[in-house]
Amino acid sequence: MSLSEPDRELVTAELGREPTTAEAALFENLWSEHCAYRSSRPLLSAFASEGDQVVVGPGDDAAVLALPEPDAADVHPAERDPDDYGDTYVTFGVESHNHPSYVDPFDGAATGVGGIVRDTMSMGAYPIALLDSLYFGGFDRERSRYLFEGVVEGISHYGNCIGVPTVGGSVAFHGGYEGNPLVNVACVGLTNEARLVTATAQEPGNKLVLVGNGTGRDGLGGASFASEDLGEDAETEDRPAVQVGDPYAEKRLIECNEALVDEDLVLSARDLGAAGLGGASSELVAKGGLGARIDLDAVHQREPNMNATEILLAESQERMCYEVAPENVERVEELADRFGLGCSVIGEVTDGNYVCEFAGDGDRDVAVDVDAEFLADGAPMNDLASEPPTQPDRDRPETEPPLGEAVESVLAAPSTASKRWVYRQYDHEVGARTAMKPGDDAAIVAIRETEEDDATAADGDGVGLALSSGANPNWTAAAPYEGARAVALENATNLAAKGAVPLAAVDCLNGGNPEKPDVYGGFKGIVDGLADACADLDAPVVGGNVSLYNDSVEGPIPPTPTLALLGTKRGYDAPPAALDRARPPTPRSCSSAPAATRSAVPSIWRRSAGRTDFRRFPATGSPISSRRSRRSPATSRRSRPTT
After folding, report:
1. How far apart are CA 107 and CA 111, in angstroms?
2. How confident is the model at residue 327 (pLDDT cuts 50, 70, 90)?
3. Is the pLDDT assigned to residue 640 strictly greater than 60?
4. H or E element: which one contains 268?
5. Which of 2, 67, 289, 633 is deepest in the core (most CB within 10 A)?
């Protein structure tokens, strides 16, 4: 993939000259669909993303949410007061690593975990939980089983090595994923008002410091690779675009990041993901309306003779870019050395353009000299045609099967059968926070930092986080809008089954080639359906990810709106899904349920009680009320959360 002719004309007009090789490569990657959301951004305004609980909404590496005090944890957000929220925060984000997981399932899935964990770290948070939602072709296909096993192994290896529990998720099998599986990973982190960091550069004169693994040639052009259809030769031709992870380096980076935040050494941060160093550093300064001067020769490298473009765009893993005050640089270097990590002072924040210089073995030249905001946010949006997707034919049995046979068939289907084989490979208890383990409707994670210090307070009476994620491709392939609403409802009822109320959501919106009108029409349907349902649930959508061009020689994937929903409840106990053998079950209607459970059921669920057709759910509901967004955190620092 290369910079398109229309984009090159725009860049040339802005610069007043032809772009250099490095500049053209930077624009190609940062203006790709993967980074710039050129086809999806016009649709994303449909999501409501504000509320008293929202500290940092869409646009940063991860969203930041204030947790309610324990007394208000069971109260629906629409009924809470602003003062009901404390200064314990959680971060919430989700990412996709779809194309890399097809080319190299182990490394593709593993580095997807590493990337979303670093997004969490860049907000000054410690990662405490992971969820993964995975989608593969038919289970009867050998290729699908190979991808399935490799992806699960990659996720378990990386997550187990870094000590972050995988507490939930979903697995679905559908013929539409034969040539393009999906790997969507969400991460929850823990921080507080005093420790919060953002990806907005603060002041000219501050230093830019690169901490972590050395830069190699792996992952070159990963952002542009993720923005094109997979070809028949993707497994061989696109392998250099797949990153190679080192979870033990990531674990050291997690702990180093904690130490840097503890000592108030980080002014802003960005992890090195899509578009590598060029993407992270240019976006960091662009968000602050500033520029930078970077010495590419100063970047610590693990391969010889790398040129400017390779240094800028390699997506080598386990690296962070920090803005640091000049007087604190030496201490940052000391901490990086303590944790066995590389550290380079690569430049400084300026008032001017984003400038990168490189000498290599020759004379020093200016490889990049562009306006940072134009580079990060100047990509024009696409105006694409859309049309309703073709409805699939109904596939009904000619004769009604016996009930027992039908039940056995449903329970044996790979998408509905037990996923114990998957989640038993994940360490879901490391960190000693997992109160409700995988295999139930929703996981529950204990946030003990919210427990009251009062000696009379009950032990374990803090805020429990309930987590659910997933989508159903059978629903969204048949009816994108109604299917997406059903996806939101299913995740929300998973929380309600554990006595929790929704706090906020993030989404991973996966689609095929948006240049095909029926594919774009289906994608638009899942966006609108998810937006309407989350508004009805009073669950602001505070961040997410878009992954398009999931198209291969097998055709486009079904429109797949993975929703990760986070809820709260007082305490960490919840009724399990297992049948209580000690006594006969007592039928109980919603109205006769315990008060705590009834309060967890928003009005959309009560209005829908007894309905069996999700398409009959109301198309609109009470919109999210206009509530103020929280201000940026105070600058004082407090003790870090227990990890």
Report:
1. 6
2. very high
3. no
4. strand 268-271
5. 67
Helix axes 247-262, 105-121, angle to 10 degrees: 0
Which pTM value belongs to this model?
Answer: 0.86
**Gap between the Cα atoms of 412 and 540, Å rounded:** 36
- Give tens-digit pLDDT for 216-268: 988 675 454 444 555 555 454 444 556 788 999 999 999 999 999 999 999 99
d(CA 49, CA 624): 9
In 10 A of CB 340, how many CB atoms?
11
What is the distance between the alpha carbons of residues 32 and 413, in angstroms, rounded to a whole number? Answer: 38
Residue 71 DSSP label: G
Q: Mind listing the pLDDT tens digit for each residue in 118-136? A: 999 999 999 999 999 999 9
Structure tokens belonging to residue 453: 């210090």
Residues 562 and 510 sit within 8 Å (Cβ to Cβ): yes
Question: Residues 250, 162: contact at Cβ < 8 Å?
Answer: yes
Coil, helix or strand at residue 391: coil
Residue of 76, 97, 174, 428 marked catalytic: 97
Q: State the Cα–Cα distance between residues 602 and 79, nearest whole angstrom.
A: 11
Helix then strand then coil, in percent of the chain rounded to 5, is 35, 20, 40
Q: Of 67, 176, 145, nearest to 464 (Cα)?
A: 67
Q: Out of 165-179, 277-291, 443-457, pick the least confident.
A: 443-457
Structure tokens at 91: 């971060």
Active site residue 157: no
Of 34, 76, 157, 174, the active-site residue reads: 34
What letter would DSSP give residue 143? H
Which residues contact residue 493 at a Cβ distance below 8 angstroms, ignoring those fewer than 6 apart? 441, 605
| Annotation says 174 is catalytic | no
